[in-house]
Amino acid sequence: MMPFRISVPASSANLGPGFDSMGLALGLYIHLDVESADHHAFFAHGSEESEENHFIWNITEQVAERYGVSLPPCKVQETSEIPLARGLGSSASAIVAGIELANQIGNLQLTDVQKLAFGTEIEGHPDNIAPALFGGLTISTMLEDDIPSVRLNDIELDLIAYIPEIELKTEIARDCLPDTYERNYAARASAMSNLVVAALYSKDYALFGKMLENDLFHEPFRKSLIPNFNIIRKKAKEAGAYGTALSGAGPTMLSFLPKGNGEKVKNEMTKQLEGYQVKLLEIDTKGVSIS
């Protein structure tokens, strides 16, 4: 086995009203450096971890079992730039990494359709899995026997992420949502989502930002869980952002800005926010990659 590296991007789901269907691949990564060995060894956080306790390796073994292959022994070193429980799709990136590790060392030659289906089966929904696999902005959903998705790569925007020190578990953020939406309310919420997509495709970024901040599906119910939600949105708009939304379920927030304005706005927002990592991020357009 020749040494190789698997890289999987982070992702931001929802993007305002694109609830549980839209996801954007971001330039933060999980890397797996893989080489041949006498026995399986998985290293993370600077030390060797037991295989049965490591999430990525567990996914790798599930894939191998599904397709009936034995995996050759190898040494895997994980490094991650993606903070956990911050709304940046860390679990989906780890799932995709585990699937691709099995695919490579087991010589499975899985198709994109198979990878997406297996990842969605584990994660429960495709909104983070699809961008981690394919890159760019993806819109996806689950049918009874299919997971259709569309990718949009040509987005001419700068992105700034505001990543707080606190974590927010997805289960907590999910529990604060209503079980049902009244019909007229749901129709209005759906219209916002339609306009977000239409604005992106037509490159009407001012309209995109406006609709981004008019979500009705989840942000009105989650914003009380998010420190500085209103302050970040207000200050980012004053600094020139088109719009700001929760990344996934939060607590990270993501601003979209005119191309070329990111560094200036990042510096301004850094001065205003203590206890945050304020990052200027690229949109990843490749998805999972092997090098």
What's the gist of this structure?
The protein has helices spanning 55-67, 90-105, 112-123, 129-134, 170-175, 183-201, 205-212, 219-222, 229-239, 262-272; strands spanning 4-13, 22-36, 41-44, 47-49, 74-80, 137-140, 149-152, 157-164, 243-246, 253-258, 276-281, 289-290. The protein has 291 residues and is α+β, with helices and mostly antiparallel strands. Its EC number is 2.7.1.39.
What does this structure look like?
This protein is an alpha+beta fold and 291 residues long. It folds into two domains: 4-152, 2-Layer Sandwich (Ribosomal Protein S5, domain 2); 157-281, Alpha-Beta Plaits (2-Layer Sandwich). Helix content is 36%, strand content 25%. The protein contains ten helices and twelve strands. The protein has helices at residues 55-67, 90-105, 112-123, 129-134, 170-175, 183-201, 205-212, 219-222, 229-239, 262-272, and strands at residues 4-13, 22-36, 41-44, 47-49, 74-80, 137-140, 149-152, 157-164, 243-246, 253-258, 276-281, 289-290. Strands 1, 2, 3, 4, 5, 6, 7 and 12 form an eight-stranded mixed β-sheet that branches. The two termini are 13 Å apart. It is found in: Cytoplasm. Residues 197-273 form the GHMP kinase C-terminal domain. InterPro entries: GHMP_kinase_C_dom, GHMP_kinase_C_sf, GHMP_kinase_N_dom, GHMP_knse_ATP-bd_CS, Homoserine_kinase, Ribosomal_Su5_D2-typ_SF, Ribsml_uS5_D2-typ_fold_subgr. Keywords: Amino-acid biosynthesis, ATP-binding, Cytoplasm, Kinase, Nucleotide-binding, Threonine biosynthesis, Transferase.
